[in-house]
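Section 5.1 Outputs to date
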Amino acid sequence: MRYTGAEPAVARLADAARARLPELTETTFAAIIGEMRVYSDARFVSHDDLRSSCAANLAFLLRALAEPGTPDLSQAAATGRERARQGAPLPELLRAFRIGFTEVWQRFVESTVSDHDTGGLVAATRALWTLIDDYTETLTEAYRETLAEITRTRHERRLALVEALFNGATATEGTLWEIARLLDLSLDGTYLVVAAETPGVGREPLPAIENVLGERRHASAWRLTPDLQVGVVSLRDPEAAEPILALLKEKANGRVGVSPVFTGLGNTARALHLARVALSSLLPGAADVVQFAESPLAGLVASDPEASAQLAHEVLRPVLRLPAEERTVLLATLRAWFDCRGSTKSTAERVYCHPNTVRHRLKRITDELGRSLTDPADIAELGTALRALTMFPDAAHLPPGP
């Protein structure tokens, strides 16, 4: 129900109250300060601003009650927008408005007591509370619209900063410092980067992960792309990585790659690359989490994916040309041999066959590749090629060379 204009009795009471506006402003201001700690502490609004707001809103209110026609609610909307920008809670704002309206009603009561104008008081009360509904509705709508716009702007700003962080677009220390400040992350902190494969466009593979980490007092920043959900996670200490990895395993519904622990927010872009490399080492369709195993060789291989994939294909080309089943068996045996530090017995246990079978497979590999497993140079090249093939599985499907 909208307020449609003043009745004569209401207008008289409103005019009488307008004549005492400075006094009414001070009593309203004092009531708000006395009853509401959020205003007495000046947490969001200074006392001077609050007093000015009381005067402006009371003047608009009394004018609406005194003058015919549709009331001007622009001051209510302006107050709603301003308080949203200041971060004042909406319930507290509405309560302050109700205090102001009650102070006006008390003036009406005082004005009608002496002449026993019950009818005028009833009309004024009806008009006042109808106007309260209009005011609070207008204020609330303006507040929520402004808050939504602020939230949207902050969200877009945050996404842009996260994008810049992952893209390495931090040309100066000042820029990086600003990103760290606005994302509430430490410039020199300890971090992990997570790259999780999305199950579909717009779908998070790690739902609500930022909130879950926040509950465990780990700040983080995330962005969602059509293919990946990526995040940088702040660690309170390097040992905190293990609980986070366990949490990711619990939440993961697809492939998740994790970078090594690193220090310094400026290294985020490189860490993302390593997390993506770790993810690519998992078989498609797997629901698992793997962390990039940091080592000088792994870092070297990961630093140049194209060159590393080319190396893997050139070194292992004869084996990669074999039929799929045979190729898979030989490569698995060679990987196990490296993992087992060249022990034939341990390799046999790893691949579930007799040691003589392992020896036969290794001889087949060396014959195909024309390399020796006793020559340090050949071993170094084979180990690097295998590492590259693990990190970049597509290297096995490159077109064969001449």
